[in-house]
Amino acid sequence: MVKYIEIEKSGQIYCSDCEQGWIKKFFLKKIKKDIFVCDECESLWFSLKGIILEQSDFFTGYLKRKGYITTEGFDDWDSILEDGDYVNFDEIKDFVEKHKIKVVVLE
């Protein structure tokens, strides 16, 4: 579980792993599920709650292990993923409050 989470004034949350990228929502078509990925370090979570409570996986490593992409890098990403919005603090606020996670708002 993370001890604190950093957010922008706009509400976008920073990755708790690298603290440099923002977490973005994708729809993984192969398993018909939303996933959450850092746009900088490729940390991966399978739920909003997981961003706060669980250790991340590595996005492309996960896709390769599951056979969703090849190592050659010529995959059709549109057939694998549907792009979504960045995760906003309001989406995880309940988890943060419930687990008493410190929130740091960056200027």
Describe the structure.
This protein is of the alpha+beta class. Helix content is 25%, strand content 31%. The chain is built from 4 helices and 7 strands, in the order ββββαβααβαβ. A 5-stranded antiparallel beta sheet has the order 5-4-3-2-6. Strands 1-7 form a two-stranded parallel ribbon. The two termini are 25 Å apart. The mean pLDDT is 92. It comes from Halodesulfovibrio spirochaetisodalis. This is Transcription factor zinc-finger domain-containing protein.
Task: Compose a concise summary of this entry.
The chain has 107 residues and is of the alpha+beta class. It is 25% helix and 31% strand.
Distance between the termini: 25 Å
Overall mean pLDDT stands at 92
- Residues in β-strands, percent: 25-35%
Shape: elongated
Q: Please describe the biggest sheet, giving its number of strands, its sense, and whether it closes into a barrel.
A: 5 strands, antiparallel
Rg: 14 Å
| Total beta-strand segments | 7
**Unreliable residue runs:** none
Structural class: alpha+beta
Strand order of the largest sheet: 5-4-3-2-6
Put simply, the count of helices is 4
Question: How helical, in percent, are the residues?
Answer: 25-40%
Count of individual domains: 1
The ordered H/E elements are: EEEEHEHHEHE
Protein name: Transcription factor zinc-finger domain-containing protein
